[in-house]
Amino acid sequence: MEARHLRYALALAEHGHFGRAAGALGIAQPPLSKQIADLEREVGTRLFDRTRRGVFPTAAGVAFLARARRALGEITAASVDAARAARGETGRLRLGFIASALLEPLPDVLGRFGRERPDVRLELHEMATSRSTAALVAGELDVAITLGRPRGTGAERLVSVPIGHDHLVAVVSGAHPFAGQASVSVEQLRRQPLIVAPGEDEPALTGTLRALLGEDSPAVLAGASVARDIHTIIGLAACGVGVGLGPSRMLSVPRRGTWFCEVTPRTSLPDLVLSFDARERSPVLRAFLGVVRGNCPDAAAALDLRLGPREEGGL
């Protein structure tokens, strides 16, 4: 039994006449009569009464047609669902990200993606760079946003593109001696209790701080307070715990009772990097990368370089 048999039976029931049903279907009457007869033999019972007044479903036919109508509806829905999935309009996206990405560019990217793909299920996980890299390599994430490029076993399989640039800034409480200053020097930082991200989670940032502080870095960083994200760094600084060090994107979340200073010499931090498995090209991932391309010009150029120019409806 094929879908066309169901369509033929429904058309015959609707028109009550073989000739009219055949015309509506765009076929000749003899083939329609044969297909209905074949269907009745397969079902094992008569589905239509042929009378001089027309063709009418039997009791068995009524029961069959009810199921046939639902079955054709499911077939149509399946085709629609398959097409939507192929366009990346349904499915899921598993994204791991560091907290600072919530300042920029994730709000615009996720907002636009949610509006354009409301039926895609987003699974969002705040993760340190080391954890999200491992999860991405293990296939537990579809895409990750990290500080610096992923490193370690399996990282060679990843496509990684920069989506944001930062430099180091300091944040202190309003009562701190640095408050009111436009900048602080490295020499001044060496003599202050610091607040930093955990080294094991963000090794790229820790490496930058070690290089900046020079030979004093082991002692200075050993006594530093450790904060899991930029909001905690700012919060601890506001409490007067010490001088918080973090990315310049912290400037977008000023907090009452705090003061931000540039660090001299100006020190570039590792890029904010978006990564995904080069072998994974699901429609939902393609759709997400399309939004990233539209919102992050640097990423668009890098994705074009790695993946080729964007095609209509694709990446």
What is the averaged pLDDT score?
A: 90
* Number of structurally distinct domains: 3
Taking pLDDT < 50 over at least 5 consecutive residues as the criterion, the unreliable ranges are: 311-315
Which structural class is indicated by helix and strand composition? alpha/beta
Compute the CA-based radius of gyration. 32 Å
Q: Categorize the overall geometry.
A: rod-shaped
* Separation, N- and C-terminal Cα atoms: 40 Å
Task: Describe what this molecule looks like in 3D.
It holds the Pfam family HTH_1. It comes from Streptomyces albireticuli. GO terms for molecular function: DNA binding; DNA-binding transcription factor activity. InterPro entries: LysR_HTH_N, LysR_subst-bd, WH-like_DNA-bd_sf, WH_DNA-bd_sf. With 315 residues, this protein is an alpha/beta fold. It has three domains: 3-86, Arc Repressor Mutant, subunit A (Orthogonal Bundle); 97-165 and 271-307, 3-Layer(aba) Sandwich (D-Maltodextrin-Binding Protein, domain 2), CATH 3.40.190.10; 168-264, D-Maltodextrin-Binding Protein, domain 2, CATH 3.40.190. The chain contains twelve helices and 13 strands. The chain has helices spanning 3-15, 18-25, 29-43, 59-86, 106-116, 129-137, 186-190, 203-213, 217-222, 230-238, 283-295, 297-307, and strands at residues 48-51, 54-57, 91-97, 120-126, 143-147, 158-164, 168-173, 183-185, 194-196, 225-226, 243-247, 258-264, 272-277. The strands form three sheets. Strands 8-12-7-11-9-10 form a six-stranded mixed sheet. A five-stranded mixed sheet has the order 4-3-5-13-6, sandwiched between helices. Strand 3 (91-97), helix 5 and strand 4 form a beta-alpha-beta unit. It starts with a helix and ends in an 8-residue tail after the last helix.
